[in-house]
Amino acid sequence: MASVETISTSEEISPRFQKLLRGVSDELSPEELRHAVSSIKTNFRGKFEDQGEQDLYSCLQLFAKQGLVSEDNLTLLEGFLSPKASKKKSLKEKIQQFKENRQQEVSSGKEEPGLTGRERDLEKVMAMLTTGSSRVVNLHGISGVGKTKLAIETVSKWPGRKFKADFREITEMKDVHFHVLNALVPDKTNISFEANLVVELMQQLRQAEQNSDILLFLDNVDKFAGGDDEASTFLNANFVKFLQGLLGPKDYPGKSKLKILLTSRSTLRHAKLANFDNYEVMALEKISSSVLFQNQGIGSVREDQMEKLLQICQGNPLIIKGMAAILRQQITDDTRILETIEQPLAAEPPESGIPAAEEMICAIPHLKEDKISF
């Protein structure tokens, strides 16, 4: 059987999801573990081949890092592992309990609240995708500005079917085909990753969904969006060609419309030639930055100190949350932060105009990233 080289997307795995993956692995007997791991290694290469013959837990972690299994997508656990386990009932109960807890969390609003200061952006992007002529919209902007957050909120508002694939660390078109194919049919083990197969499957979905439009969200497409060197230009041209293949003719009688939403740090090359749209996600305005900062549960901060902290963050949501996390966990205080980083940043502003979150954290003495919980 053919196999594919899988690519890690470095998705963060929450402790509760790790607990579920560990619990699922513990339900299988040694023989069942060997069989499951062997099957995974047969169909997937890369880092899976480095795992022990019974180390299903590490294999599941790799799947989670690739986005092939997540807190909201347990198809792989339910469809691949559960039927093979002798303790089917116990395994199903574990998965079902996790799903119920997850649903309760979402319903109770314990998840991070929606957008702050992006309401107008959300309206514009939704209008571009639903009422305008846009078929592909690329949300671009600097790291941490909130592109993915805006895209996720857009997807949540989409009235029809929606699919998501994360391209972080993906560098080849075959991996693009594989991840899109897996997003469209997550309940199957996909071995072939030819572009034509993905395009054909999308046309079938559009034929079946005649009464509602489809949204395909492709996150972190940086490697395929820009770049001036010959290799990047070639990769971008093939990526745009693939998107055009998925879209098909503009007027497709008897089929639903397909819209594609991208996120990238740069504009999409050849966008105008392909009639694609770039939408820049800008830094938050001052009042929105203040609201976001105060919503992080940091307690009391003097007004003048908050003013200076927000100036340093310059409307970047990721940096605002990181700064708030430092204060909330009392790793250091606002005065110490300002003493440490205010002067260096003022003297040597970064080229982008907004300091990277990593630089902000590393600027504070004796502070390590693993101490901070966002």
UniProtKB/TrEMBL annotation:
GO terms for molecular function: ATP binding; ATP hydrolysis activity. It comes from the Eukaryota. Residues 98-118 are annotated as: Disordered. Residues 139-245 form the ATPase AAA-type core domain. This is ATPase AAA-type core domain-containing protein. It comes from Pocillopora damicornis (Cauliflower coral).
